[in-house]
Structures are given as C-alpha cells and as structure tokens.
Amino acid sequence: MPCPFCMIASGIPASPSPPVLTSKFGSAYPVLSTPTVIAFLDIAPIARGHVLLCPRQHSSKVIGLSPQESAAIGFWLPILSRAVMKAVHGQEGEGGSWNILQANGAEAGQTVPHTHFHIIPRAGASGTEVGKSEMTDAERKNLVLGEGPRAKLEDAEGQELSKLINHEIVKEVTGLEEQGFILSSQDNAPCMKIEGRELKL
Ligand SMILES: [Zn+2]
Fold first, then answer.
1. Catalytic site residues (predicted)?
2. Going by C-beta distance under 8 Å and a sequence separation of 6 or more, which residues neighbour residue 108?
3. What's the 8 CA to ligand 1 centre distance in angstroms?
C-alpha cells in the first residue's frame, strides 16, 4: 500500500491555486502546494477547516525533516492558521482558538506514517464554536489528541472550503511579496533569500 500523502503530493503539482485531485482512492482538497510542502483538508475532519500540512518528500517522523523543510513548515504554520481562521470564522484568529498538533509513531497516535501537522480550528473570537460547546475535560483532551468525533468530508464542502482557504493564503502571500519579505520564483514557489541563498518555501 503506497503512502497516501506521497500519492497526494505526486498528484498535485506546485501551484498558487492547486486544483482538487480526484483518483480511484478518493478526492484530495489542497489549499497550498509548493515544491517543498503541501497542505490539504483532512478527509475526516475533527472540525470544519481541519487542515494537514506536510513535506512533499516522504519522511515518517519530524526528525526526518531537512533544514529546508523545517524552515518551510515553520514559515507556513502561522500563515495557514490565519487563513484557516479567516475562512472558517471570518477573522484571522486573534482571540480565536485552534490547535496545531503533530504525532510521531503509532503509540503517539500517528496513523499515516508521513510527517504531518494538523491545524484544527476550535472557536472564533466571539466564541462561535466549531465542535461541541459543552465538553468535559476528558472529552476536550480526547479532541486535542485527535480522538474526537470525526465525520467524512463531503465533496461539495471540500470543494468550497479548499477554495476559501486557498484564497486567504494567496492574499497572505501577495501581502508578504508586496512588503518584500518573500520573492516569487518561476516555478510558483514563494522563496526567501537568506545570506544570498534561495530558500524555497
Ligand atoms: Zn509519504
């Protein structure tokens, strides 16, 4: 059985606005696709807007990430957080609640052996909840560990939500380009120059 995230990565080329991937194994709804990383909707979301960010290259655990992949993932996590919160709650996340979770190994709850980070919106700044509003501490802990109720992502929802989140990411990237923080290279990869060397994000 091939790695499902490698299959998604190989089927979705780097693009500012990557299209939905439909295959015999199901659909993947990308929100971000660069030569270094890919992010897409979780097909069994814990909450609306649940996104996974992973390196394009296979590595089973976080210790396998290269320095370039580590830098790119660190770069994208806050941008994805803002974009997801904006798409789901209409605000960038200041005052809102969300999780960034990452598991290494089966005993830690990792189910797909390709390094990935979960971004899970929980509530907007006004307290607009995403999951259950009345939760016990145990239920909340289970949710944080990714063991909460999960519903299958419907195709229409996936299509709509991935476009919404991607739209917010494109706005973020454009803003960073305008401020001179990042450069766009020919292969649709935002990149940074660090001491004269190009770092593809
Ligand atoms: Zn893989």
1. 116 (tele-amp-histidine intermediate)
2. none
3. 9
Structural domain range at position 50: 4-200
User: How many Å apart are CA 32 and CA 53, to the nearest integer?
Assistant: 9
- From the CB of residue 185, how many other CB atoms can be counted at a distance below 10 Å? 14
Please report, rounded to a whole number, the percentage of residues in the chain having pLDDT higher than 90: 68
Distance from the CA of 93 to the center of ligand 1, in angstroms?
A: 30
Nearest to 40, CA basis, from 20, 66, 25:
20
- Comparing C-alpha atoms, which of 64, 99, 70 is closest to residue 84? 99
The DSSP letter of residue 20 is P
Whole-number Å distance, alpha carbon 161 to ligand 1 midpoint, is: 24
Q: How far apart are CA 123 and CA 144, in angstroms?
A: 13
Give the CATH number, domain containing residue 30: 3.30.428.10
Q: Which of 48, 46, 10, 12 is nearest to 31 (CA)?
A: 12
Could you give the CA distance from residue 8 to residue 26 in angstroms, rounded to a whole number? 10
Paired strand residues for 97: 123
Residue spans of the chain under pLDDT 70: 127-149, 185-188
Please list, in sequence order, all residues whose beta carbon lies within 8 angstroms of the beta carbon of residue 184, skipping any fewer than 6 positions away.
177, 190, 191
Residues assigned a catalytic role: 116
What count of residues does the chain have? 201
pLDDT, one tens digit per residue, over 106-125 is 999 999 999 999 999 998 87
